[in-house]
Amino acid sequence: MNKLICDLFEIRVDENTKVRSLHLKDGCSLASGSDIFLIDHSWTTNPENAAGELLNTSGLLKRMEGLFNISYNEEDIEEDDSDKQLKEEFINIVCQQAKVNSEKAKDALERHNYELVNAIDELTTEEEYSSDIMEGLKETIASQMPSDLKDKGEKKYTGPTVKQRIDRIVKYDMWKYINVYQYTVLTDGEEENIITWYFFDEVGNAIQHSSDPNVVCIPFIYNNGKENVEYSLFYPVKDISSGEVITRNKLPVVFILK
Chain-wide mean pLDDT for the chain? Predict the structure, then answer.
């Protein structure tokens, strides 16, 4: 949230429903058409890639669950590939046992799906480690693992899997928050229409729907010469008084030609 928005607006949470809403701060007021504000987009995607991005982009799944007001018991969340602490500990162990740098240790672990003994076996020569010594590596590794990581590995998992969490978002929850814009690109003389899904950050996501809104939100694409940077603009279309909830019309405008 940028400084100007922080000075004028605040997010409030309903104690019963846990729904977030954006309000003009007490003691503040805005006149219609007086200001323009920027909203960041937390995620921009398309129908083909949404599920894959939730799976492969570090931190995205958890952030979207927060924005969509999806809550799980933290102890019942299946660890996914974003568990950096565990992977870093594995890398350190391979570095110590195989006497290699962290880059080589990481590459070997990735080739062996983070199986410690197999990664160390690949990185060591027959003279350095006999088969008898390799058999004892599991015990050595276990003694080097911090207790909290060992407990994490031994814990019986009972909550939703990562796939189930992603399915819930893609099939059910994201549709309440999704925004869409379309643009046309020209490639080799052929026009192609590109449909893009986008989601607001925490500020924009807290703006509630109304058929009689007090602000308008418009997507805005800025090209810095290297890539497109996407924002949304919002501005008051009515006078807004102290403490008033901020609303926009989330339904697209449809023009009917007769």
Answer: 81
Q: Considering Cα of 43, then 20, then 247, then 24, what sign does the dihedral take? A: negative
**Under 8 Å between Cβ of 80 and 100:** no
What is the C-alpha separation between 99 and 105, in angstroms, rounded?
A: 9
First to last CA, the chain: 44
Q: 96 near 144, Cβ under 8 Å? A: yes
Structure tokens belonging to residue 258: 């007769």
The set of residues, in sequence order, having a beta carbon less than 8 Å from that of 25 and lying 6+ positions away, is: 7, 8, 9, 10, 242, 243
User: Helix (H, G, I), strand (E, B), or coil: what is residue 36?
Assistant: coil
**Which residues have CB under 8 Å from 100's CB, separation 6+?**
94, 108, 123
pTM beyond 0.90, yes or no: no
CATH number 2.170.270.10 is the correct assignment for the domain at 3-73+165-248: yes
How do residues 28-81 score in pLDDT, each as one tens digit? Answer: 999 999 999 999 999 999 888 899 999 888 889 999 999 998 987 665 555 554
* Residue of 7, 25, 14 whose CA lies nearest to 208: 14
Tokens of 185: 């690109």
Cα angle at 56 between 224 and 201, to 5 degrees? 50
* 113's tokens: 């799906």
What are the structural domain ranges in the chain? 3-73+165-248, 84-154
Element (H, E) at 21: strand 20-24
Do the Cβ atoms of 53 and 80 come closer than 8 Å? Answer: no
- The tokens for 38 are 């920027």
Rg (CA), the chain: 25
What H or E segment, with its residue span, contains residue 231? strand 228-236
Asked if residue 145 has pLDDT above 60, the reply is no
